[in-house]
Amino acid sequence: MLKYLYLEDNLFMGSIPSSFSALKNLKNLDLSRNNLSGQIPKYFQNLTLLQYLNLSFNEFEEEVPYEGVFGNASEVSIVGNQHHCGGIQNLGLPPCKAQGLKKNKRSHNLKIVIPIVSCSILLAVFLFLFLFTWARRSKRKASSLLQTQEPFPKISYAELSQPTNDFSLTNLIGEGSFGSVYQGIMGEHGMLVAVKVVNLKQKGASNRVNFKAIVYELMQNGNLDEWLHSNEVQVGVHNFNFIKRLNIAIEVVYAIEYLYYHYQPAIIHGDLKPSNILLDHETVAHVGDFGLARFLISSKKTSSLGIIGTIGYVAPEYGTAGKASMAGNVFSFGILLLKMIIGMRPTDEIFKDGLNLHQFAKLALTDRVMDIIDVSLLQEVQNIDENVGNTRRSSRERTISIKEILITFVRIGVLCSRESPNDQTEMNDVVAELCGIRDKLLGNYRFR
Hints:
Blueprint: E1 4-6, E2 13-14, E3 28-30, E4 35-39, E5 52-54, E6 59-64, E7 76-77, E8 83-86, H1 99-111, H2 115-141, H3 157-161, E9 172-176, E10 179-186, E11 191-198, E12 212-217, H4 224-228, H5 242-261, E13 266-268, E14 277-279, E15 285-287, E16 294-296, E17 302-304, H6 316-321, E18 323-325, H7 326-342, H8 357-364, H9 369-372, H10 375-387, H11 392-416, H12 427-444
Parallel strand pairs: 1-3, 2-4, 3-5, 4-6, 5-7, 6-8
Antiparallel strand pairs: 9-10, 10-11, 11-12, 13-16, 14-15, 17-18
Helix pairs in contact: 5-7, 5-12, 7-11, 8-11, 10-11, 11-12
């Protein structure tokens, strides 16, 4: 079932194994920049779904096949192999020495083929043309930039240079230890993108060998930390009210749960914090910056971390055991929830002498929760109370309902951020409780 296989830029030697012939669903294969040798296997011609084959900069020799993927010069690359010959004319290779004799032999054989075999060949040609045309149309239909079904479409240096204004400072939107990030507009649909360039300052970066970059969809609304500590509402976006914060929390927990329970191998995000929660043009949350993420390949569901995450959000167990685990993600998510509802950073000056954000929230449960809630959310509760009407009883009931919902939200954050993994709530339960809060909230109120 394998469709995409990228093995470029390694030190592989020898010939391509015959087992590759079993990859009947293969679409993209990149074996470039290795030390592979021998003849190019002819079974590649029979992989009818193969649309991209890169064998460049190896040591292949002898005749290049003519059919299948080799019949289209735009779908195969064999540059950098010094002993090639044959192939279709568009590949620009010299003819093989015995090519003339092979043509005469092929012509002689055709003259003695019986009609039944001729019909079979004709039928096979029609079938091949049908599959080839269908594959080309499907590829063309899905070739819209960054909207292709292929997980990692390749983009040239020139295609990135133009929308980023040749990687100018005016397009620079961020710098970090792994490279610089530039914004631009790409594709026929004018998609806003963020281009993360690795080591652009290197002298020979433009030769397309040393140059490396990754293209992401640009998150137009920045990150969650900026929203939680901004005094101004961004243009064109609704107020950052409680229901919006709740939706973001649910979107984040769904992402974390999916990567751990429903993806193989399971992945742990090693640095979950508000600045790594990116918001798109509709303020939908995207979990980003997996620089400390770890793949879990053992049954113990832990992985060596090596580096700790951000102070205040990293689980205590990371510092003692040096192992990343789902419990560590639950802890970080709990601190994230408390920050979203209280509005305080876990590193604020108030948290000292053994007091932390978890304990601060726990001490306020349940009688003093309204005293620690973010001021902007308190104003929202007051607005709801005023809009209910003149009926004091109805007003009181709805205000109490909102208070109960806020208490539940804080309680989830406290349960998640317990120091002992054995005392933490399960992420599956967190999903259910947060969705329950949202259902209850939307069933009783309308927010502008």
